[in-house]
Amino acid sequence: MEFEAGKVFSIAAANRPVPGCTISQEIHKGKNPIWVFSLGADTDISAEIFPYHKLILVQEGTLELTGAPAGTVLTAGEGILAPTDVPVGMAAKTDTVYVEIEIQKEDIMNKVIEAGKVFKLADLVPYQDGKIVNMDVVHNEKMKFVVMAFDAGTGLSQHAAPGDALIFALDGEGVIGYEGQEHVLKQGEQFRFAKNGQHWVKAEKRFKMGLLLTLE
């Protein structure tokens, strides 16, 4: 991925929209390319037909889908699995930044996610006392996107990622250990583990995160 490993950052802050422009950057290639889009206020991307789904995760601003499902609006922290084989476009009334993951039709998508229906990542998993709750949102042999809810006092012991991993802090606050250093990660921030990077997670307070793991 294009982001530096071992540092807390914000995708939205690192990709400020330019007035009157749309900007796109591919941050991961492979079977499931990952893009970051920055749309200036009152700009749009024309509706087009794609043979794959787009998993759209809004980081900042307000995004409206055009084409189909027309009029669907997403705000920061919300996502949608755009349908295939129908025209889908994007429009931004305010400065907006979002992540887009290409999801192939054969990829295994959790049944709680319905194409064309807005969802909030942080609401996909509940907190449970003394427990860590996991949900696989989508996966295949080269990619996995997981949402996790940590109760206060829980965590993951040190281990290494078999591929690049991008963390999205969704709720609360967590502590990330990476290659011997601790980093506090708060809602709306991101963190990257490089392949084979030694890391752990500790939730001194309740904490929810999304983990996007790529194995290419």
User: From the helix content, strand content and strand pairing, which structural class follows?
Assistant: mainly beta
Number of helices: 1
Q: What is the number of independent domains?
A: 2
Oligomer status: single chain
Q: Profile the largest sheet.
A: 10 strands, antiparallel
What is the highest CATH level, the class of the largest domain? Mainly Beta
Strand content: over 45%
Mean pLDDT: 95
Q: Indicate the CATH topology of the largest domain.
A: Jelly Rolls
Tell me the span between the first and last alpha carbons. 10 Å
Low-confidence stretches: none
Tell me the series of helices and strands, N- to C-terminal.
EHEEEEEEEEEEEEEEEEEEE
Counting DSSP E segments of at least 2 residues, the number of strands comes to: 20
Please explain how this structure is put together.
The protein is an all-beta fold. The protein has two domains: 8-120, Sandwich (Jelly Rolls); 122-214, Jelly Rolls (Sandwich), CATH 2.60.120. The protein is built from one helix and 20 strands.
